[in-house]
Description:
single chain; about 200 residues; alpha/beta; Glutaredoxin; 2 domains; two-stranded antiparallel sheet; 7 strands; about 20% strand; Thioredoxin-like_sf; transmembrane helix; transmembrane
Amino acid sequence: MNEALMISNVLLWVAVLAALVGLFALARQIGVLYERVAPMGALMMDTGPKVGEASPVFDLPDLIGSSRVSIGRPGEKSTLLFFLSPTCPVCKKLLPILRSVNNTEKDWLRVVLTSDGEQPEHLAFYEKADLKEFPYVLSSEPGIAYRVAKLPYAVLLNEHGRVVAKGLVNSREQLESLFTAKELGVASVQEFIDHQHA
């Protein structure tokens, strides 16, 4: 009887040690996987004005016609040009994030919304989403100049009117990666990560 109890205890300890070794190996593999899967910044399409180049300059009326919105001219603040559509669900998901960015970064950043299409549709969207805090431009000119093919897309211009970061943004992380790229002085977070690995 004692011998059977002793054998079962030994087998249990062997099983516990095997489980610990397996857990350690799994934790190590997760760490390796985490290093390989780097954080994704905004997906930069290599079209339109390149990072470092001067932005095209626009002076366009806002959606409701109450003022004009200047884009690409040197100014006191950087400009985040956010391309969106009333029918884009991801764009709508990012609106609370844009509000947060607009409030927390207002000392150095101006957020401008831009789109093209029919004015009645955009006015309804503007009212329903309560976008009065943002300058909203309805014109195809910026989209053509920046060669925007997919939405939501964002372009960050510095206070000198130069493109400092741009890309397709589907999440808060990708939007914030534009600000990180500006701080690091690189075209994109991906470029920075690639240089670190090289």
